[in-house]
Amino acid sequence: MSDMPPTGSPSGPIGPPYPLDERSLAQATRIEITTGSGPGGQNRNKTQNAVRLIHEPSGVVVTATERRSLEQNRKEAFARLVAKLTILNKPKRKRRPTKPSRGSKERRLSAKKADSRIKAARRKPVND
Question: Which of 109, 53, 103, 123 is nearest to 82 (CA)?
Answer without folding.
Answer: 53
